[in-house]
Design a protein that fits this description.
Elements (H helix, E strand, L loop, with lengths): L5 H12 L15 H21 L5 E3 L26 E2 L14 E7 L8 E3 L2 E8 L2 E8 L5 E8 L17 E3 L2 E5 L4 E6 L5 E6 H4 L14 E3 L2 E5 L6 E7 L5 E6 L10 E5 L2 E7 L10 E5 L6 E6 L14 E4 L2 E6 L4 E7 L5 E7 L10 E3 L2 E6 L7 E5 L6 E5 L2 E6 L2 E6 L4 E5 L2 E5 L4 E8 L2 E9 L11 E3 L2 E6 L11 E6 L4
Parallel strand pairs: 2-30
Antiparallel strand pairs: 1-3, 3-36, 4-5, 5-6, 6-7, 8-9, 9-10, 10-11, 12-13, 13-14, 14-15, 16-17, 17-18, 18-19, 20-21, 21-22, 22-23, 24-25, 25-26, 26-27, 28-29, 30-31, 31-32, 32-33, 34-35, 35-36
Length: 496
């Protein structure tokens, strides 16, 4: 009988612990039966251990997901704002009506600090958060929430204004890799299947990046093989393009404007693919605005200032391409919204502007020749707008509001500075205290289709993610009513 080395034994055990055993049938004699029974018992124990090892003490499983309809169109949600960077999902067979008990909760898992959205590729779901003094990337099964791998590193950050000390930027899937940009500007690339580190750079140290008001909060974007980050470092190193496979610096766009909390987006202007970066860090006097950059070489094609004169202000809304070589920008502190049009030389001109279209951080949505968004710097007074993107004229503006019975009390609730994504012909809206809504909106007005109070937790500012009919919602603070701490919750929105 041949011997098996320890190396191969360990390998066999690892495979066993993370795989289900395929059993084959073969003739069994009486003398071999006790041996086979012992082997079967051992295998059963090991499989049980394997399944137990895949569970997490933070995970609560509630129900199995409904089958995905055969004719359903499904998609990944690989980065902030979804597969097309516009907070719109191409999925179909999504239910818009729920029972009184709300959409079916499949599972929930505890999470740490931070405001980052989940990212989904295939059946891999990742969240980026802070736990026990570490920035942590957790990968789990997107359907059942079971942990797959974890990558973490120590981080020291304390928010100057008392907000969360966790990451703001969302993880990004591209090809076989996952990217994360931390609150202190650690930039990390991992193999998405196993969490193995490919490369990591401390941009804060390398580029002498200041803390800014709320740390670093811009989600990177991948265009072809370039990972683009609004760095905002010293010596006017404003935007940097990295080789996404090696982490090496490919180019640097120089500008005195610092790093904002807006995430770069891509656009096609006059047939050319460009990267739009809405910059603006902490400076005296405040400065910032839109940079249009060639993603191939970092060349600055256009520069348009758009920033409040207030020192304590920030640009946080992603620049939104709206067609016809036009881009919508918005900030909430003073300037409001503006639509720019670029000529063939990439010279920008203002088409229209409106100081009252002051979006704080959510991503506005263009749908059926109308522009939708939430305006308002503060929770009180925030409302939803629908305007003509061609000229800025309002179709309507209103608070999306309703009444709910909670613990025998009648509560008047509203969306506040909520976030929404569009799927099929309706919007999935999440209020900043945890109300989940299905709303139909068009140029004539809005209609509330379904509503459910998921929790009562302030700071619910994270855009949900939708993939394969499942909705992922981040609760960032403690539930003031039920007491649960921050969680990731998965809901079944598949049509039955």
């Amino acid at each position: 009988m041949s011997r098996v080395s320890n190396k191969h034994k360990n390998k066999a055990v690892r495979v066993l612990l993370y795989s289900r055993f395929p059993f084959s049938f073969f003739p069994v004699g009486l003398t071999t039966l006790p041996v086979l029974c012992a082997i079967s018992l051992a295998l059963t124990c090991l499989i049980s251990q394997a399944e137990e090892s895949r569970k997490s003490p933070d995970l609560i499983f509630h129900a199995e997901a409904s089958p995905l309809p055969d004719d359903a169109v499904s998609a990944d949600w690989p980065r902030f704002n979804g597969p097309n960077d516009n907070a719109q999902s191409p999925e179909t067979a999504i239910t818009s009506k729920w029972p009184a008990s709300g959409p079916k909760l499949l599972w929930e898992t505890k999470k740490g600090e931070g405001y980052a959205s989940p990212a989904i590729q295939g059946n891999l779901l990742t969240i980026f958060h802070r736990k026990d003094g570490h920035e942590r990337i957790d990968c789990m099964d997107a359907t059942r929430g079971e942990p797959i791998w974890t990558f973490q590193y120590p981080v020291e950050y304390r928010d100057r204004y008392g907000y969360s000390n966790g990451p703001r930027a969302s993880p990004v899937f591209a090809g076989n890799h996952l990217y994360a940009h931390g609150v202190t500007a650690w930039l990390t690339c991992l193999e998405s299947k196993n969490g193995k580190k490919v490369w990591q750079r401390n941009l804060g140290e390398e580029f002498s990046i200041p803390q800014y008001f709320f740390g670093k909060g811009s989600t990177p974007i991948v265009i072809k093989d370039t990972l683009i980050v609004n760095v905002g470092g010293s010596e006017d190193r404003c935007v940097v393009g990295f080789d996404r496979l090696t982490g090496k610096t490919k180019w640097i766009t120089k500008d005195s404007w610092g790093a904002s909390y807006s995430s770069p987006s891509r656009a096609v202007i006059h047939g050319k693919e460009v990267c739009l970066v809405f910059t603006g860090g902490e400076s005296r006097p405040p400065e910032g605005g839109l940079l249009v950059i060639d993603p191939e070489n970092g060349k600055k094609l256009a520069r348009f200032p758009w920033r409040s004169a207030r020192y304590e202000s920030a640009n946080a809304v992603p620049p939104l391409p709206i067609g016809d070589n036009r881009v919508f920008l918005s900030e909430c502190y003073e300037k409001g919204g503006v639509v720019l049009e670029f000529d063939k030389r990439f010279t920008p001109s203002i088409v229209w502007s409106d100081q009252t279209l002051n979006v704080h951080w959510m991503t506005p949505i263009v749908f059926d020749k109308a522009l939708y968004g939430v305006a308002g710097r503060h929770q009180q007074g925030a409302d939803v707008f629908c305007v003509n993107p061609s000229n800025g004229k309002a179709y309507w503006r209103d608070r999306i509001h309703w009444t709910d019975e909670v613990d025998g009390r009648s509560l008047n609730l509203e969306l506040f500075r909520g976030a929404f994504l569009k799927v099929e012909d309706f919007f999935i809206c999440l209020s900043e205290i945890g109300s989940l809504l299905i709303v139909k909106m068009d140029k004539k007005g809005w209609k509330l289709i379904s509503k459910h109070q998921l929790f009562f937790a302030p700071g619910t500012w994270t855009l949900p993610a939708l993939s394969k009919g499942l909705l992922y919602v981040m609760q960032n603070e403690n539930d003031r009513r039920a007491g649960q701490g921050p969680r990731l919750l998965c809901y079944d929105l598949r049509k039955r």
